[in-house]
Structures are given as C-alpha cells and as structure tokens.
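Retro notes (design track)

What went well: tokenization of the new backbones is finally stable.
What didn't: we kept losing track of which sequence belonged to which structure.
Fix going forward: every design gets posted as structure first, then sequence, in one message. First example under the new rule, 244 residues:
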C-alpha cells in the first residue's frame, strides 16, 4: 500500500467511515459482476436491480460491527437495509475482503510506527451464538448454550496479530497453533528477532509447549500447581490482613 503522502484523517465518529479509510478499502473490494451477456450482436444488458452502493454498504457493516446492534436495526440514514448489508457482509467475508483489510492495516501500521514483536500474548474468549452456525459449540460456562470462542494473539500494545474462531467447547490449547499461524503478514524470523509468548495456566503443558517452541517463541506460562499454590497464599495473606 502506497503511504508516501501524508496520511490525513477526517474528523468522524468512531463508527463512521472516513474518506481516507474508504480510499484504502476500495482496492480490496471484489470487482462488481458485469451485467453484459452474450457475444457480438447478441451482447446485451440483462438488466435487474442496480447493485447497492459499496461505500454505503461498508459504512453500514462497520456500524453494525462497531456498535453490536442487530442487522435489521440498521438505520435508514445509511441508505441500505440491514438485510442487504448482511448479505454483502457474508459475500465479502467469503471473498476475503475483511482479512485483506486486516492485513493492509497491519502492514501500514508496521511501516508507519513499527510492530513490536518482542512480547506477545494469546487467550480465548467465549461469546454467545444463539443462532448457531458452523463454528459454534456448547458453552461449558453457560449451561451448554450455543457459543463461539475467539482465540486472539496480540502484541504488547494490544495490536491484533492472529485470530481463530471455533466452538465454545474447544480447549484453548487446541487453538494455540492455528492462532499463531493465522498472522496475515510476514512474521519476523525468531532467530533474528527475539519473541516471547505469554499465556495463562490454561495453556500449561502439552501441546502448547511444543507448539510455542516449534514457532520459535520463548514461552512464559505459570504451572498449574504453582499458580494454585500462589493463589492460596494470596488468599491466606488477605485473610490475615482482614483479621488484623
């Protein structure tokens, strides 16, 4: 992505699509299908309903993703219905548009500020998914209701580097390797750039230790036994302080 010129941002709300952001998105969108069919004298426009305006679609989609409101609650001021926005969202997901946006954003950030790779951390978070779907499962923390788990890798500034979505009942350890491999840009050679991976006690033992080593990370994860001992000691200290 060409960033030779000075980056300019229009003052817009956090859920709005600025001109500079849209200029970056346009090259990443799939080309619209031609409505011309046939050859020679038989070439003709097949007609049909005009395609929705891409910027309005993306504005509505980003608003939904930013605010978390329902698709059918999308305001008419965006110029597209929630149903249309959702249809194009699914189409663009399949076409890899949002992954390319993520990749382009990381590359631009790296060129402008530089991504800090030395310290990274990964963890999973469970969210509800009442409508089900391919990547859902029974949530063990919510009476077996349908949910998803997002396994996320970030650097020390919280920059999202890797992301995998799976069923809520998938153990964090099984998602570690695909999460580390999901980084959409080229990761520095661990032999040349020191990289540490911090995980919680849910990742202790195998296969996480082998996975981290294979990817060139120095692993930092508390042992379950020591973590339990330290937690008990902390509770004991708090009780003694309370007794004073």
């Amino acid at each position: 992505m060409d960033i030779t010129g000075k980056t300019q941002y229009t003052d817009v709300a956090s859920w709005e699509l600025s001109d500079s952001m849209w200029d970056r998105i346009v090259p990443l969108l799939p080309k619209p299908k031609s409505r011309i069919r046939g050859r020679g004298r038989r070439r003709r426009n097949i007609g049909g309903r005009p395609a929705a305006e891409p910027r309005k679609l993306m504005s509505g989609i980003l608003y939904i993703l930013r605010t978390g409101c329902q698709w059918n609650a999308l305001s008419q001021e965006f110029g597209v219905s929630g149903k249309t926005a959702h249809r194009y969202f699914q189409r663009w997901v399949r076409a890899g548009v949002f992954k390319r946006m993520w990749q382009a954003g990381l590359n631009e950030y790296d060129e402008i500020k530089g991504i800090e790779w030395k310290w990274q951390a990964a963890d999973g978070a469970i969210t509800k998914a009442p409508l089900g779907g391919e990547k859902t499962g029974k949530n063990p923390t919510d009476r077996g209701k349908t949910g998803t788990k997002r396994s996320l890798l970030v650097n020390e500034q919280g920059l999202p580097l890797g992301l995998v979505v799976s069923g809520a009942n998938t153990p964090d350890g099984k998602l570690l390797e695909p999460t580390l491999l999901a980084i959409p840009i080229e990761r520095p050679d661990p032999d040349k750039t020191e990289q540490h991976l911090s995980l919680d006690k849910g990742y202790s033992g195998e296969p996480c230790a082998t996975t981290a080593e294979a990817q060139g990370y120095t692993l930092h994860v508390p042992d379950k036994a020591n973590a339990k001992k330290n937690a008990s000691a902390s509770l004991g200290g708090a009780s003694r302080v309370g007794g004073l």
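Added context from the reviewer: The longest strand covers residues 119-128.
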